[in-house]
């Protein structure tokens, strides 16, 4: 089969690979909608998780089931399904402990385009199909549903990690597609004021639509000073980090009230240490928590988030700015994600076989 792969750090290309085999609990899909992710960019061009050779890229999409293993109960060939970016082994001890995303070891639930072939292939292997696939709801466009693989669950996980409560003041640093869903998650969890940090006009417009009350452009000066100005020097209860770098934690800790929580969903592609300012961290005693997490993945979460989309609570279709047709366009879509033109939020490729 044909696939688009990471050939090595900084290098991508089309390759031929064996069609994956289907184990007893697995499913094989054919993609019908695919989306590239900023994480693919960190993985290939920053080599952030190490070198990979001929590893098929991609972890976001919707597919049609073509084969299932003999132990799969709930899916059959012909079903249209959403695949989660994170596909844990649900019988692992880590999953039993509540950390499905780390099944088998740290970040072990993140298999696609990390430790096994991703979804940019003519056929896609999904482990533990009953635990990891969700039926595409009737009436939901595959391109919109593709946002349920990663953008929606990860962005919302930011608001879960930050433990946003009713009436909170929340700063969301980074309003690409992930941070935008972080904004929406904060709204849904009852935040009062939401300070959204970004500079792309498209993203700013959607941040306001999703419920951000204030926009902060990090290019206009220190985020910290702007947040402190807007909060009369008091700071915020929660920070969701979905952009920036290792130094971003410095400002995040400083703007946080004692007892506050940082929910980081940013993939730190570069740098060795995260910066925590000693004094503003209460010399170690400020009750300022940093929670950083990969989203949990799996079927139940996707079914629930899909239900939220169907109920009109979330509209992830607003994230899609660039549309392509045909499997061959996966490369162009990924390059767009790498180059990040100012009008880009998220590209999607739809495929009619
Ligand atoms: P984008 O690149 O589209 O968005 C990044 C955002 O951060 C933009 O709003 C950008 O602003 C802003 N930004 C950039 N530099 C700074 C800075 N120095 N200070 C403050 N803000 C800054 O990324 P995505 O939304 O696609 O992804 C966000 C992160 O989430 C990525 O690292 C991605 O890999 C990660 N991720 C994590 C997952 C998880 O499970 N935890 C899953 C999926 C993704 P501007 O408007 O100027 O572009
Ligand atoms: Zn992704």
Automatic annotation (TrEMBL):
Pfam families per UniProt: ADH_N, ADH_zinc_N
Keywords: Metal-binding, Oxidoreductase, Zinc
Cofactors required: Zn(2+)
Family: Belongs to the zinc-containing alcohol dehydrogenase family.
One example GO MF annotation: oxidoreductase activity
Every Enoyl reductase (ER) domain range: 8-349
SMART domains according to UniProt: PKS_ER
Taxonomic lineage: Bacteria, Bacillati, Bacillota, Clostridia, Lachnospirales
Lineage top rank: taxon: Bacteria
Species for this entry: Faecalicatena contorta
Coiled coil stretches, renumbered: none
Official protein name in the record: Threonine dehydrogenase
């Amino acid at each position: 089969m044909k696939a688009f792969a990471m050939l090595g750090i900084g290098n991508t290309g089309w390759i031929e690979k064996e069609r994956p085999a289907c184990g007893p609990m697995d499913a094989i899909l054919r993609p019908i909608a695919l989306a590239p992710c900023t994480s693919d960019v960190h993985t290939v061009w920053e080599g952030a998780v190490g070198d990979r050779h001929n590893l098929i890229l991609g972890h976001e999409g919707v597919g049609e089931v073509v084969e299932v293993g003999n132990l799969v109960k709930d899916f059959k060939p012909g079903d249209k399904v959403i695949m989660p970016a994170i596909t844990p082994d649900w019988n692992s001890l880590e999953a039993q402990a509540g950390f499905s995303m780390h099944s088998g070891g740290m970040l072990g639930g993140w298999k696609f385009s990390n430790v096994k072939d991703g979804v940019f292939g003519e056929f896609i292997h999904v482990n533990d199909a009953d635990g990891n696939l969700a039926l595409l709801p009737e009436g939901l466009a595959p391109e919109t549903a593709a946002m349920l693989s990663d953008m929606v669950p990860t962005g919302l996980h930011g608001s879960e990690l930050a433990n946003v409560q009713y009436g909170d003041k929340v700063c969301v640093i980074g309003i690409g597609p992930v941070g935008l869903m972080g904004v929406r998650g904060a709204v849904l969890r009852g935040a009062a004021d939401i300070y959204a940090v970004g500079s792309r006009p498209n993203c700013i417009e959607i941040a306001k639509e999703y419920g951000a009350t204030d926009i902060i452009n990090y290019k206009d000066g220190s985020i910290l000073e702007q947040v402190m100005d807007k909060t009369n020097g008091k700071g915020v209860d929660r920070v969701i980090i979905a952009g920036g770098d290792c130094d971003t934690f410095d400002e995040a800790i400083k703007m946080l009230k004692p007892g506050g929580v940082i929910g980081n969903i940013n993939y730190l592609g570069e740098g060795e240490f995260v910066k925590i300012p000693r004094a503003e961290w209460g010399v170690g005693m400020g009750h300022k928590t940093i929670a950083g997490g990969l989203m949990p993945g799996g079927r139940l979460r996707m079914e629930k988030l899909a239900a939220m989309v169907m109920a009109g609570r979330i509209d992830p279709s607003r994230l899609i700015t660039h549309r392509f047709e045909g499997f061959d366009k996966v490369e162009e879509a990924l390059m767009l994600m790498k180059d990040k033109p100012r009008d880009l939020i998220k590209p999607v490729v739809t495929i009619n076989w």
